[in-house]
Specification:
The protein has helices at about 100-120, 175-190, 230-240, 295-310, 325-330, 345-355, 370-380, 400-405, 420-430; strands spanning about 20-25, 25-30, 35, 45, 55-60, 65-75, 130, 140-150, 150-155, 165, 205-210, 215-225, 245-250, 265-270, 275-280, 280-285, 315-320, 335-340, 365, 385-390, 410-415, 435-440, 450-460. The protein has about 450 residues and is an alpha/beta fold. The radius of gyration is 24 Å and the shape is globular. The two termini are about 35 Å apart. About 45% of the residues are buried.
């Protein structure tokens, strides 16, 4: 993995898309694709190849500085290669790593973080081994199926908007498969039209299912309209398919394109929320609520964050990008007071309700952009003992970093789902004299290229 190019193997690249060449794989790209060098030295990213393998590679695209290809015949397979256990592997755009063993997956993710820190951030930081999951199957508690004419209900083909009809997915519970099948049967029986993204016509757009550890489920049907024909029959069909279902909701989304979440919601039957327990707290989740999809590994991640925080009971904690308050409320049990900041108003409502539900009085939540809140609090002289940031994949805006530095917190805990933007942001902190260390890496998304990283940033005088 990584390293320098090896002696060139037999095969000659004409550098014409559609041609084949024999290549030795010498590492991984950020999405888990193999990395090799063409005979002329150009880097080639090879989908479906593993580190160390000798492959026949079909060249799909030639760019100015690199090429992309797909592994064909594996001439010298890696010991880490396994037979993919999903019939949709290679078609569905979800799992990308089902052809490699789980130890190899963890090795790839560890190197992914190392490479990002070194090559993007210019940082030479030790990276702990990735904390793997005990269960790499059926771990997701949320799924969103796009629906296309047919009806086809499943997932988008890789790099396309073509829906692959998927009877089951090994990342989701069996409940989800039953609900998907029930909706498809109902659509076929009553000739309910699927949404057509190209024309904006049709009705059923997405099927959303959320499950919890108690075996309950919540289903939302997103439609291109205000109502559905045969709503009562849909509810009955779903209740028969999944005895654990507690609510069926209609989500209205009349916007063009393939966006999922609705403009409004109407409960067709049962409840419009689902409860889940995390860190000894109960969280009530609505359809648009953000909640980590892997409950077991989220508990592992949060335990590491709380241990790193080392709170004594009198600290002021600022939690930017707080969502529905999961980290904020877990911190509140150990801190003096916690301020949570989130831009999504429904998430802030959920966070406040979750604080009340768990009898937590020392946490407050505000609906505001992180950079605006950080700047306002900095201007007001707030100097929190700890700032926690768990931003989206795009990382921190420069204004947020500047405001954090202006507040001079004792420490910053940065929870990242994207090593590239983490490396970029840590490099910005370093320019102001801040020191960083990587505390932990946790695999929340087995069989996909994603990995969570927890970093600690300390000020120049701390």
């Amino acid at each position: 993995m990584g390293g320098t190019a090896e002696k060139k193997e037999p095969g000659k690249s004409t550098k014409i898309p559609g041609s084949d060449v024999t290549l030795r794989i010498r590492g991984y790209g950020s999405d888990g694709e193999g990395v090799a060098s063409l005979p002329d030295g150009m880097t080639c990213f090879v989908r479906g190849a593993l580190d160390g393998e000798l492959c026949s590679v079909h060249l799909d695209k030639i760019g100015r500085s690199c090429a992309w290809g797909t592994a064909g015949e594996i001439l010298e397979p890696s010991n880490a290669r396994v037979e993919p256990d999903c019939p949709c592997f290679g078609l569905c755009g979800g799992c990308a790593l089902r052809h490699m063993s789980y130890p190899e997956e963890l090795r790839f993710k560890h190197r992914k973080v190392q490479d990002a820190l070194a090559h993007i951030g210019g940082l030479d930081l030790p990276v702990p081994e990735v904390c793997g999951a005990e269960n790499i199957l059926r771990y997701r508690n949320k799924v969103q199926f796009p629906v296309a004419p047919g009806p086809c209900i499943g997932f988008y083909q890789r790099r396309s908007h073509r829906v692959i009809d998927t009877e089951d997915c090994l990342l989701h519970s069996g409940q989800v498969a039953c609900i998907r099948k029930a909706v498809k049967t109902w659509m076929q029986q009553y000739e309910i039209p699927a949404y057509q993204e190209e024309t904006g016509r049709g009705l059923v757009r997405h099927i959303f299912v959320r499950t919890n550890a108690a075996g309950e489920s919540l289903c939302c049907i997103f439609v291109n309209g205000e109502e559905l024909p045969r709503e009562a029959e849909l509810v009955e069909c779903l209740r028969r398919a999944d005895p654990g279902i507690t609510g069926v909701i209609l989500g209205v989304n009349k916007r063009k394109g393939n966006g999922i979440l609705g403009e409004s919601y109407r409960t067709l039957w049962g409840k419009d929320t689902l409860d889940e327990k995390l860190c000894g707290l109960t969280f009530r989740l609505s359809v648009p609520s953000f909640f980590q999809v892997n409950l077991a590994q989220t508990q592992v991640l949060y335990d590491k964050i709380l241990d790193l925080a080392g709170l004594k009971g009198n600290e002021t904690v600022l939690d930017l990008y707080c969502g529905i308050g999961t980290i904020s409320l877990a911190m509140a049990a150990r801190a003096g007071n916690v301020i949570g900041v989130e831009t999504v108003s429904s998430a802030v409502d959920d966070a406040r309700a979750n604080a009340e539900r768990n009898n937590i009085l020392n946490a407050e939540f505000t609906c505001e952009d992180a950079k605006e809140t950080a700047a306002r609090l900095a201007a007001g002289g707030l100097q929190p003992d700890l700032i926690v940031v768990d931003p989206p994949r795009r990382g921190l805006a420069p204004e947020v970093i500047r405001a954090i530095i202006h507040m001079s917190p004792g420490r910053v805990i940065y929870v990242s789902c994207n090593p590239a933007t983490l490396a970029r942001d840590l490099a910005v902190f370093r320019q102001d004299g801040y020191r960083s260390r990587i505390d932990s890496t946790v695999d929340l998304f087995p069989r996909t290229p994603h990995v969570e990283t927890v970093a600690q940033v300390s000020g120049p005088t701390s």
